[in-house]
Amino acid sequence: MTLDRTASDSLPARRLLLVHAHPDDEVIGTGATMSHYVSDGAHVTLVTCTLGEEGEIHVSALSQLAAGQADQLGGWRLVEWERACDALGVSDRRMLGGPGRYRDSGMMGLETNKHPRAFWGADLDEAAAHLVEIMREIRPQVMITYDENGFYGHPDHIQAHRVAMRAAELAGEDGPQKIYWTAQPLSVLRDGMEAFKESESNPFADVDTVEDLPFGTPDEEIAARIDGTEHYAKKTAAMRAHATQIPDNSWLYGMAGDFGGEFMGVEYYTLVKGERGPGEGPHKWESDLFAGLDLDGR
Ligand SMILES: CC(=O)N[C@H]1[C@@H](O[C@@H]2[C@H](O)[C@H](O)[C@@H](O)[C@H](O)[C@H]2O)O[C@H](CO)[C@@H](O)[C@@H]1O
Ligand SMILES: [Zn+2]
User: Fold this and answer.
1) Contact at 8 Å (CB) between 89 and 100?
2) Less crowded by CB within 10 Å, the N or C end of the chain?
3) What gap in Å lies between CA 279 and CA 268, rounded to an integer?
């Protein structure tokens, strides 16, 4: 079968693919990065794997949409997701296999993990094939997804990692030349713990040290620091679009409000495929995910 590569030939020279598990993950972990690259003229493709049907509902008027009631939260979060992508300027956004193909599995160990459409139980190569199709169309040079623990251990995040990495393997030369996993440097977590210690809405309240958290990466293992502080207003606008998941009193707004863009507008990554480009600072962190790539060849 001859592959139609004219699609990517008509796209901008730089093409970034992000693979996320639920609506809202895209903004929480990578919203500033997405907005930064859209603003800088790159083509950004977001692939989200589930509709988030099993999520909480922080908007009381919508509480009856819950999975155990009308079971309509997935459709509502699809709308939230579209609005959030609009706020970030991301027009190329897709649900893996189409909206509704894979269902939010719920937290690890719950009965919902066994739902016949739960993403956690998806056939890996079948799910990866949907992503390979997108890679062949877009031919992204860079891909962002989660580490093997899904950043914090949620089954859909772990499965998103597995599907993204398998698709990159199957896509061969149409797959990404550089692959990054979302990460949070331990130094930033320590600063956050200090900054939040007097705060009412404190995400660090249940731990004594940052090493007790299910995530955190030694600074020397971080490869890239993307400064999107000029875009954190768009990131917070996109977060507000996800109102069922991110309540107005969320600590995430505290980070943006009291601590400015440094915490919300800067996002960090480890590099697991490809060569690190030129970097800055004590650990030579890249400031551009496309650093070191020969873009002419693709
Ligand atoms: C950020 C993220 O991945 N959120 C997921 C997660 O949400 C958690 C879940 O509702 C849990 O019950 C809460 O205690 C926790 O505060 C939430 O972050 O899991 C949901 C169910 O799979 C998912 O819909 C949501 O997007
Ligand atoms: Zn998620």
Assistant:
1) no
2) N
3) 13
- Across the range 178-203, mean pLDDT stands at 89
Ligand 1 binding pocket, CB closer than 6 Å: 22, 24-25, 28, 52, 54-56, 104, 106-107, 154, 245
78-108: pLDDT as tens digits: 999 999 999 999 999 999 999 999 999 999 9
Mean pLDDT, rounded, for 239-258: 85
State the greatest distance between any 2 C-alpha atoms of the chain, in Å, as a whole number.
Answer: 61
| Confidence (pTM) | 0.96
CA distance 240 to 201: 17
User: Ligand 2 (ion): which residues have CB within 5 A?
Assistant: 21-22, 25
Tell which phi-psi region holds residue 65, choosing left (phi > 0), alpha (psi between -120 and 50) or beta: alpha
54 by Cβ neighbours in 10 Å (0-12 / 13-18 / 19+) ranks as buried
The ipTM estimated for the assembled molecules is 0.99
CB neighbours of 257 closer than 8 A, spacing ≥ 6? Answer: none
Closest CA to 74 of 115, 45, 125, 108: 115
Average pLDDT of span 114-122: 98
